[in-house]
Amino acid sequence: MRYMTAGESHGPQLTGIIEGFPAGLSIDIDLINQRLAQRQGGYGRGQRMQIETDQVEIMGGVRHLVTLGAPICLVIQNRDHANWGAIMAPTEPGDAVQDRKRAVTTPRPGHADLVGGLKYQQTDLRNVLERSSARETAMRVAIGALCEQLLAQLDISVLGYVTGIGSFTTQPAQSLALDLVELRAKIEHNDLRLLNDSDCQSTIAVIEAAKAARHTLGGTVQVLATGLPAGLGDYTTAGSKLDGRLAQSISSINAIKGVSFGDGFALGQLAGNQAQDPIEWTAATGYTRTSNHLGGLEGGMTNGLPLVINAVMKPIPTQMKPLATVEINQHQKAAASTERSDVVAVTAASVVAEAMTAITLCEVILEAFGGQTVSRIQSRMKAYRQELLER
């Protein structure tokens, strides 16, 4: 399975194509739209979220809400395009006056603006920021929600949530025996996707302080996955190691600057006998572990324990008090451009990280078990799980 997205932040729409998705999956569109709404939610989001109410449209590869095995085409309309029609029209000639009004020539530190403009020889950096915008992740969330539904047919669940915003951090979920249905109910009970409602007021205070100071905030998220059999991924080549693939997938999300697994960077401070997960075996469960310091991954492969991924998001680069920059045409000192932005988008990042994990797990599972239909994949996965129990 592979996917591709297209579209600009203020263009007419976002488009996604998924190739290699199996036939026979009954799609719940409401679930996809629910995930899109969750991406748009969260305390501290900007005015753009009040304009867009994302709804997915399925344009191909599905009939009567059942996948056909053909490439699937998804579309999300950009409602804000109505305010940018002439400026962001894909095929109509540009209006020089209007284009100049919305041109960007003062790149924002921390954004793709300057380097993207240098790479693609752009004199108007809007041609960079429109695609590099996190708006693109809406389509990745839609694709991830589709993958989430396939994983559910294989008894695999994925959940992303917030573990910290700014200076406020929370205690993450214990990582050995997890009930993701229960955890999802907890995080969806508040606007911040925190495990404990009691942490919300302290977190909101941090956000409000940043807003008053006209700053932006980053934070941390964690993604959990349960139901994974041992052996997904591989140790034989660098590119097939699952932790490497997941790290790339998560770090491809806008503003993510670090990814770790299990106890993460804290493992570097432990003695060797404290950092590993001792092995046990029972006839009922097969091989298992007594701890999960490594986050369900050993040697580039799942080991049957819950997958635990941690990621850190830097503060949003668009500043309400612009930083110093250089105007690219005159090479004069200037204040960086400002675009409509959020104070914090860590809540959204947790939803996108959940989606990217689901996509990557689907890719790996389809590579391992093949099959053009959901029922074939289910039977092969069931046989593999039984084989593991008998080893």
Topology:
Blueprint: E1 2-6, E2 13-19, H1 29-40, H2 48-51, E3 56-60, E4 62-63, E5 66-67, E6 72-77, H3 96-102, H4 113-119, H5 126-132, H6 137-152, E7 157-165, E8 168-169, H7 180-187, H8 200-212, E9 219-226, H9 242-251, E10 256-261, H10 272-275, E11 279-282, E12 286-289, E13 297-298, E14 301-302, E15 307-313, E16 324-327, E17 332-335, H11 346-369, H12 374-390
Antiparallel strand pairs: 1-2, 2-6, 3-6, 4-5, 7-8, 7-9, 9-15, 10-15, 11-12, 13-14, 16-17
Helix pairs in contact: 1-6, 1-11, 4-5, 6-11, 9-11
How would you describe the overall organization of this protein?
The protein is 33% helix and 20% strand. The protein has 391 residues and is of the alpha+beta class. It has a single domain, classed as Chorismate synthase, AroC fold (4-Layer Sandwich), CATH 3.60.150. The strands form six sheets. It has a five-stranded antiparallel β-sheet with strand order 8-7-9-15-10. A four-stranded antiparallel β-sheet has the order 1-2-6-3, covered by helices on one side. Strands 4-5 form a two-stranded antiparallel ribbon. A hairpin with a 2-residue loop joins strand 4 (62-63) and strand 5 (66-67). The relative contact order is 0.17. The mean pLDDT is 94. Its cofactor is FMNH2. It is an enzyme of class 4 (lyase). One of its GO terms (biological process) is chorismate biosynthetic process.
What's the quick description here?
By secondary structure, this protein is α+β, with helices and mostly antiparallel strands. It contains twelve helices and 17 strands. It has a single domain (2-390), classed as 4-Layer Sandwich (Chorismate synthase, AroC fold).
